[in-house]
Specification:
Layout lengths: L15 H20 L3 E2 L5 E3 H7 L5 H6 L2 E3 L5 E4 L4 H10 L8 E10 L11 E10 L4 H17 L7 E6 L3 H16 L7 H9 L13 H5 L10 H17 L4 E2 L11 E8 L8 E7 L3 H4 L7 E7 H11 L10 E5 L2 H17 L5 E3 L6 H11 L3 E5 L1 H6 L1 E6 L7 E4 H14 L2
Parallel strand pairs: 1-5, 7-8, 12-13, 12-14
Antiparallel strand pairs: 2-4, 3-4, 5-6, 6-11, 7-9, 9-10, 10-11, 14-15, 15-16
Helix pairs in contact: 1-5, 1-11, 5-9
Amino acid sequence: MQTSIQAIRGMNDILPAQTGYWQHVEEVIRRLVAAYGYQEIRMPIVEKTELFKRSIGEVTDIVEKEMYTFDDRNGDSLTLRPEGTAVCVRAGIENGLFYNQVQRLWYMGPMFRHERPQRGRYRQFHQIGVEAFGLDGPDIDAEMILMTARLLKALGLYEYVELQINSLGTAESRKAYRQRLFDYLSAHREALDEDSLRRLHTNPLRVLDSKNPALKEIIAAAPRLLDHLDADSRTHFEKLCRYLDAAGIRYVVNSSLVRGLDYYCKTVFEWVTDKLGAQGTVCAGGRYDGLVEQLGGKPTSAVGFAAGLERLVEMIKEVHAADFSLPPHAYLVLMGERAEAYGLLLAERLRDQIPGARLLMNCGGGGFKAQFKKADKSGAGLALIIGEDEVAQEVVAVKHLREEKEQVMCSQEALIALLRDYVLGNP
């Protein structure tokens, strides 16, 4: 006997009992981005490896340890996308979307990172990404943050998260700060872990992103980048804070927040929670004004955010007892060959006449008792019962399965009206 084939570790099936949560989150996202005037872009999941090395930074955990990279038959190095921003920028440059244009784009789909699987962190995971190009003021940064706040409110998660913000300034202002940070961390070299020692010489700002609790006090006492901002970045950040204050968005300025990717500048932000264990970041983003030029395009201002769908779903399960499954409105109980043929055509007519009606027809025969057991298990609110007599009289018996109501006999026209009212009351 052959052994069964298992899914790849960290790449999970999403079963019917769970898809209701996903559909709910995805529908909220689609309504949200439409409300802000963003347009969907769909991109490949496989890209040239060089794209991520040039954008994310070679001295990052993603590029060094986590990417799924392979050579194809032509000898080209390809990578399953570990994040979406670089791919979106590549697509915009290649298709001429950015030059002298403002673009508001969004996408949703799977990303891939070879990490140790744990709750909220998987090797195949799914993200919503939102990106705006050609706008350089703090107003668009504020809109991004307001959009994420609205998303979290719509999902019932806002009270369980904290917004942290920071400014990384420009490349020029970071250069001076980087030397000061290097000097400070070098004085604490003996306390640094292996990763931090390596980053000290390649990008000391990445040490501030360390999740090692042993370094918490050293990082907290490090020189603050906010104290070394250039004038333009400082003004930008102060205006952003005023916009958030005016909108009533609560936030914390976290001077250690640098994000894990090298392309960020000026505004960075994260929504964090204590409801997901070690994986506390629910949604994050920031400004990356130099990335379009870095990848071969014209200088273009840009800002965006991403949110992990798995983490949103996990949070909803954690803090709400919601059920997002969509049971059928009605189950057709059919007795006999004539009833089966009649029921098949009737169900098609009902679907034509009542948009949104969810009808489940009994297939495979069975007695009344067995069929009613299936109807009850399906979660349907109504049973539409058709036997030989109903076929002969061109009527349908309607039984309420979740309410104490009398069974009624309906013509097809009366059934359409009854079922339409039921669907409207149970969308």
